[in-house]
C-alpha cells in the first residue's frame, strides 16, 4: 500500500513562514519524500494527511517537526495502523475544516474528517486538547472517528469536549482512571451489547448499547454470578430492573425488540449519546 501525502503549489499560499514563496511542490505519492518536501513551519495545510504504518513513514521526529506548527487543516486527517503512543505532533491544531476538493480529493474515500483507527499502541489523544473547531460539513460520515485503538483511554474532560463536535464516533471507548472516578463506567470486553444476562450491578455509565431481543429468560448461571446472595434465589426481571436503576448515561442505544417485557424503567438516565451511522458510506 502506498502512503499518500498530497501537497501542491496550493500549500505555498497557506504556509505563512515559508522563505521561498515561489517554491512549488510536486504532487507526491510517497510519504518519505512528500513529508520531507513539506515546507517547514507551516501553520496551515490543505490536503489529506495520512499517517500509517511506521515502516512506510519518515521517523517520528520528522513528522513532528513538519506538523507541530500546524494550526489549521483544510482537508482531512487519517492516522491508522500507526505505532504512535501519542499525537504530540498535533498539539497546536485548533481548526480542522473538512474538504474534498483539489489536493484534498482523496478525503472522499475515507469519509471522516479525522480518522484515528487501529493504532495498537496509542495511549492518549491529549494533543487534541487545542482542537476547538471541527467542521465536518454534510458530506462526511463522521467528524472525529475513534475506533479500534485498544490502548487508548479518554479522560472525562476529553470526552466532553469531543461530544461537542458534530458526528463524534467512538463506540466502546474506554475511560481513563476508572477507579478514581465518582461513577462506575461499565464496558464489555469486546464490542458487543449489554443485555439482561451480562449487565453488571451498579453501573452509572455504559459505553456499549443495551439490546434486548426476544423474551427475557434468566438462567442459573446469571444468578450464580450475582454478588447479591438473594439473587441466587430470586434473579429475575426485578434484579435486572435494579441494575437499570443505577444507569445515568448510555453511550450507545437502547434496543428492545420481540420482548414480552411489560415494563422497563430507566429512572436515573439523564443522557444518551447514540453513536449512530449518520450517512451511508460512499460507494
Ligand atoms: C522555521 O522556524 C524556525 C524557528 O522559528 C526558524 O529558525 C526557521 O528559519 C523557520 N524555517 C522556515 C522555512 O521558515
Ligand atoms: C509521544 O510519542 C513519541 C513517539 O512515540 C515519544 O517519543 C514521546 O516520548 C511521547 N510523549 C509522551 C508524553 O508520551
Ligand atoms: C460524587 O458522588 C456523590 C454521590 O453520588 C455525590 O454526592 C458527589 O457530589 C459526587 N462528587 C463529584 C465531585 O461529582
Ligand atoms: C447477551 O449478550 C451477550 C454478549 O453481548 C451474548 O453473548 C448473549 O448471548 C446475550 N444473551 C441474550 C440472552 O441475549
Ligand atoms: C433478534 O433475534 C432473532 C432471533 O434470535 C434474530 O433472528 C435476529 O437477527 C435478532 N435481531 C437483532 C437485531 O439482533
Ligand atoms: C459467569 O461467570 C463466569 C466466570 O466468571 C463466566 O465465565 C460467565 O461468562 C459468566 N456468565 C454470565 C452470564 O455472565
Ligand atoms: C418478567 O419476565 C417474564 C419473562 O421472563 C415476563 O413474562 C414478565 O412479563 C416480566 N415481568 C415484568 C414486570 O416485566
From TrEMBL:
Q: Which InterPro entries match?
A: Rcpt_L-dom, Rcpt_L-dom_sf, SPS2_domain
Instruction: State whether keyword Signal applies.
Output: yes
Q: Which keywords label this protein?
A: Signal
Keyword field contains Protease: no
Which region is the signal sequence? 1-20
Q: Which residues form the Receptor L-domain domain?
A: 41-160
- Superkingdom, natural source: Eukaryota
| Record-linked Pfam families | Recep_L_domain
Q: Could you tell me what this protein is called?
A: Receptor L-domain domain-containing protein
Lineage of the organism: Eukaryota, Metazoa, Ecdysozoa, Nematoda, Chromadorea
Amino acid at each position: 500500500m502506498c502512503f499518500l501525502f498530497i501537497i501542491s503549489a496550493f500549500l505555498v499560499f497557506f504556509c505563512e513562514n515559508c522563505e521561498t514563496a515561489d517554491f512549488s511542490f510536486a504532487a507526491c505519492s510517497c510519504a518519505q519524500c512528500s513529508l520531507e518536501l513539506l515546507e517547514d513551519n507551516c501553520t496551515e495545510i490543505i490536503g489529506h494527511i495520512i499517517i500509517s504504518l511506521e515502516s512506510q513513514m519518515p521517523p517520528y521526529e520528522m513528522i513532528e517537526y513538519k506538523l507541530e506548527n500546524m494550526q489549521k487543516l483544510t482537508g482531512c486527517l487519517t492516522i491508522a495502523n500507526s505505532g504512535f503512543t501519542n499525537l504530540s505532533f498535533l498539539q497546536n491544531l485548533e481548526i480542522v475544516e473538512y474538504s474534498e476538493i483539489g489536493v484534498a480529493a482523496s478525503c472522499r474515500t475515507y469519509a471522516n474528517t479525522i480518522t484515528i483507527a487501529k493504532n495498537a499502541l496509542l495511549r492518549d489523544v491529549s494533543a487534541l486538547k487545542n482542537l476547538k473547531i471541527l467542521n465536518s460539513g454534510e458530506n462526511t460520515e463522521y467528524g472525529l472517528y475513534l475506533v479500534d485503538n485498544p490502548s487508548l483511554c479518554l479522560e472525562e474532560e476529553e470526552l466532553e469536549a469531543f461530544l461537542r463536535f458534530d458526528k463524534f464516533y467512538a463506540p466502546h471507548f474506554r475511560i481513563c482512571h476508572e477507579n478514581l472516578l465518582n461513577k462506575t463506567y461499565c464496558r464489555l470486553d469486546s464490542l458487543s451489547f449489554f443485555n439482561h444476562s451480562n449487565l453488571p450491578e451498579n453501573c452509572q455509565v455504559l459505553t456499549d448499547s443495551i439490546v434486548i431481543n426476544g423474551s427475557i429468560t434468566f438462567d442459573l448461571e446469571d444468578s450464580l454470578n450475582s454478588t447479591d446472595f438473594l439473587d441466587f434465589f430470586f434473579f429475575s426481571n426485578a434484579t435486572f430492573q435494579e441494575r437499570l436503576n443505577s444507569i445515568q448515561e448510555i453511550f450507545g442505544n437502547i434496543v428492545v425488540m420481540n420482548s414480552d417485557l411489560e415494563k422497563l424503567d430507566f429512572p436515573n438516565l439523564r443522557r444518551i449519546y447514540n453513536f449512530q451511522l449518520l450517512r451511508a458510506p460512499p460507494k
